[in-house]
Amino acid sequence: MLKTKKLVMIPGPTPVVRSIQDQMGRETVAFGDPDFVADFAEVIGDLKTLWKCGGEAFVVAGSGTLAMEMAVANVAKRGENVLVCSNGFFGDRFIDLCERKGLNVDVLKARWGESITPENVAAQLARKDYQLVTVTHVETSTGVAAPVAEIAGAVHETSSALLIVDGVAATGGVEETIDPMGIDILLTCSQKAFGVAPGLAMLWAGQRAMEKRATLGRIPESYVDFDKWLPIMHNPAKYWGTPPINLIWALKESLRIMKEEGLEERYARHARQGALVDAAMEAIGFTVAARKPYRAPTLSVYLYPEGSGIDDVQFRTVLADEGVQSAGCLGDFQGKGFRMGHMGNIDRHTLVSAVGAVERACFKCGYRIEFGKALGVLQEGLARE
Ligand code: PMP
Q: Is the pLDDT of residue 2 over 90?
């Protein structure tokens, strides 16, 4: 049988478009090559401009977790108090990370599918003095988008704590700005809404974050130290650690695509697409795990319909055979549904193919749906856009 093309519909890595692949396939040059130096400088400049950051932007080789570590390492020291706002698995990741750093960690945990609110944060900040607050913008285990702008407002109104936002499953697909929103550190990585292969950790630090870094002196960490990388980010002709040259070219192409689409339209497209795929899945009985109004535009957790008899592992295996790679659920939702990304540089063809494959997988797993029901909702929505 002819092999079906695999669509990477897990919540990251996301499909990489041809023009970005081409950048990764280029012949690698020396990191001091003047053309590459200019490209790297342009990338840093664009990141600052597009995310409205009057501070600094950093791009280093690593995954999203490294960016989380880099964020905490540069703005907190042993003995300080951190409030971790967790909406699930990746929010919780900050707990261990901060404890290892010797911080005193308190955690606000939302029920799975719900979000910590600005009111929760303000109430906790009124109880105790914190130097740092972390929040995960889009929680990849639940498909919940936290109200980041409002949480930032609550943090700055009620305390002098710095705010770290994990934008791994959000940045480039949901609006985030550094200075206007009052985000002190935003971190993300290349393989999600940027649509680049995994391998780049990216981070923005506002003025207040840089001031805090300056008070810390020599920090215990080396690779993630802002002080080591800042000279390179200001002038990429300098050396500290070898930059991932081809991935930086790929990021440059990703930013070009974003500028061509326009960030506002890109965010609006994600909102439209996310809502449409959710509606399509609901039309065939699936439940979106994230409660309204916290549904993320970038990815969703779809819980299997009650009484459908769908077996989780079988369903995801059949779906993969039908050409769509999805992810299993974590924590409270494990075995009860699957996770699908709808972010990055995915177009209408991809969305229609993905929902079509879900319909076939339902049928093959014995859950008899009316063919075209989910697709119909999606198609009509796309046609009316
Ligand atoms: N934060 C969030 C919200 C994530 O979704 C992920 C990865 N899925 C991470 C952090 C960790 O990123 P990485 O796997 O690239 O280390």
A: no
Q: For residues 61 and 185, give the distance between their C-alpha atoms in angstroms, rounded to a whole number.
A: 18
Question: Hey, which of 90, 191, 200, 202 would you mutate to test ligand 1's pocket, going by the most ligand atoms within 8 Å of its Cβ?
Answer: 90
- Whether residues 130 and 143 share a domain: the answer is yes
Tell me which residue range forms the domain holding 334.
7-14+262-384
Decide: 212 and 72 in contact? Cβ < 8 Å.
Answer: no
Tell which atom from ligand 1 comes closest to the C-alpha of 136: 3
User: What pTM value is reported for the model?
Assistant: 0.98
User: What six digits make up the tokens of 363?
Assistant: 């049928």
Q: Which residue has the tokens 């519909």?
A: 9
13 neighbors 191 (Cβ within 8 angstroms): yes
Q: Ligand 1 centre from 197 Cα, in Å?
A: 14
Q: Domain check: are 162 and 297 in the same one?
A: no
| Band (377; pLDDT cuts 50, 70, 90) | very high
Nearest CA to ligand 1 atom 5: 140
The predicted-structure confidence for 165-205, as pLDDT tens digits, reads as follows 999 999 999 999 999 999 999 999 999 999 999 999 999 99
Question: Can you tell me which atom of ligand 1 is nearest the CA of 170?
Answer: 3
Residue 287 pLDDT: 98
